[in-house]
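Sample 1 of the test manifest.
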Amino acid sequence: NAGVTQTPKFQVLKTGQSMTLQCAQDMNHEYMSWYRQDPGMGLRLIHYSVGAGITDQGEVPNGYNVSRSTTEDFPLRLLSAAPSQTSVYFCASSLRGRNTGELFFGEGSRLTVL
Amino acid sequence: GESVGLHLPTLSVQEGDNSIINCAYSNSASDYFIWYKQESGKGPQFIIDIRSNMDKRQGQRVTVLLNKTVKHLSLQIAATQPGDSAVYFCAETLSGNTPLVFGKGTRLSVIA
């Protein structure tokens, strides 16, 4: 049971480049989300999804797109990377519908934008 | 995650002592709270949760206390061990159906 898998673990981009952070979970979780983690800022929610075909914005959605075509996958897209997007990104999932908010996190993707 | 905790409050505790990590949550309507532990270079991991109809909940070596009057949450770790060294986050949500909102975290450093 792999849990939540994020790829890549490390990435360096130049300003203006685009990329996709991949997230996959094999626990049949309905809910998936993306957080970014910056020094002194804790974890801030970027986008989330309560099920396939449904996405919504979190606290800091600007500059990021998401889609949820399957239950398992929830990719995060940066269309035109900016240095302000240098951060550690975490994907997380949970089994909504059972009245639990427990999130299962991936290992993180460290992104540097030059 | 080496740079994540640069500006975090830090609690230093002697091995074997008890640790108390505090958290002030923001939304008085929140009714579900979770503590997470994040070790260096890893994602956060669930420790313990508590609902607003409870004041206290105990797990293995950990206890969470909730004071709704002052919107305060605490995590107590008994007999702290070196493996407890990590950053600890509290998180809150409303009825488990709204996204979790995380606090900024506290770094626990265990002195052997």
